[in-house]
Design goal:
The protein is mainly beta and about 130 residues long. It is built from no helices and eleven strands. The relative contact order is 0.32.
Length: about 130
Amino acid sequence: QVHLVESGGGLVQAGGSLRLSCAAADGTFSSYTMGWFRQALGKEREFVASIGWSATQTSYVDSAKGRFTISRDNAKNTVYLQMNSLKPEDTAIYYCARSKLLWIGVRTSRYEYADWGQGTQVTVSS
């Protein structure tokens, strides 16, 4: 099990940007696929973005394509989610997660992830 810590959430106006970070306290970070999920009040947790262990593969939910960018810095054991052109419907708690398996590509199902951070709140005002 790995300890994941998200940061970078906050309150922003519609059209603004935020950059979320997720730091992993684990030396094998680079071998795992990482994902970002979000959960709005009263809704199910949904996939947002994923990046494979080699960073050559990324995947996004349709609503995030063209606005969000996932990236990773394996030297820093950190994964990022750059969010631009934010909309009120992006308001949610954002969670990062580490895949169950090593050396795999992107994964969009939350059941493919074993370790989760505590979440960071993103609020977009209209």
